[in-house]
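Milestone M4 deliverable, item 7.
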Amino acid sequence: MTAVATLSTAAATDVPSLRTVGKVLLAIAVGVWFLVIAELAARKVAN
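Output delivered:
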């Protein structure tokens, strides 16, 4: 949610540095979700 809020604020205020921060936060969030999905898949295969 923080990434989306930062990207929305960057678009509304036209501050390029906020756009960069928002993209970095979004990339981190997506990466964490991939790790969660991989862990869930690994647990399902192990059972």
